[in-house]
Amino acid sequence: MRRLHGFGRWARLLPCSALILLAHSAVGAAPKVIRSAHFLVYYERWTELPSARDAGRIGEDRLGEIARDLGYRGAGRIVIAVYRDRRDFLQKAGVTGMGPIGVVRYPESIIYLDVSGSRLRLEHMVPHEVTHVLLLRLLGPGRIAKLPLWFNEGLAEYESRVWTGMDDAALGELMRRNRALPLDKLSAAFQGNEEAVADAYLQAWSVVRFLAAREGDGFARRILSALKTRPAFASALAAGTGRDLAGLDRAWRSAASAARHEPPAPLFWGLFTAYVVGAVAAVAVFAKIWLALRRRAVALEGDEAVTKETEK
Fold it and tell me: pTM of the predicted model, to two decimals?
């Protein structure tokens, strides 16, 4: 009995001990790493392990395609560090503010990711930041400075996202409200307020998408190859596409303004319609059942009345 009693006291301490161990692993654990063919993905908390695995898998899935688009043939693994805690991410990445969710630290070219959001966001973040890393490795710290920020970010968005009806509607709103900036002023907008930054990403992405549609999939590879031997981006753009910056701006604006930008039906109205149809159907079924029961009750009352009359 004493042994059982002693075990019972230890058993009561087990949950507390487990919590202490979990807290220790969450706060003070040394970084762990997942290795793949081309990536080293670091994480600290056990809760970050699924995101670390996903980041490595997404990177491996998309790396070959992005490298081909950019004309990158280098070697060496890409380092990714994932953080589920927002404060940890901001501290380790060395950034401030609530906006960034993915950062590449130059010149180390290490990718820092805030993985506190959905897995769908990770599908976008990893190819986006991998594009930045490959651009840095392809051009080097000196030539990367020649690349306008709008083209750098627009190309990363092009490699990481699929154009949807919502984006088409947002671009239409951008054009209708005359918020599209000249391309030689667009890079500065990435340092503006939240709305200005969102507009800048959308416009940059749209311009790069326009180039891909008009110049073919090799457009980025040609421009970047020309930039290695040209003094400025404008001359590299002309060598790779035959367009100057002003001509590209005019052509893009003409195409963007001429396109039909019809906003998709709001999700709210679709759900509301489904709710109304379901409610009407439920009422109809209920009414049918109630009428059937009512007829049955009337029939039973009639049978009882006939029986009583017969007994008299």
Answer: 0.74
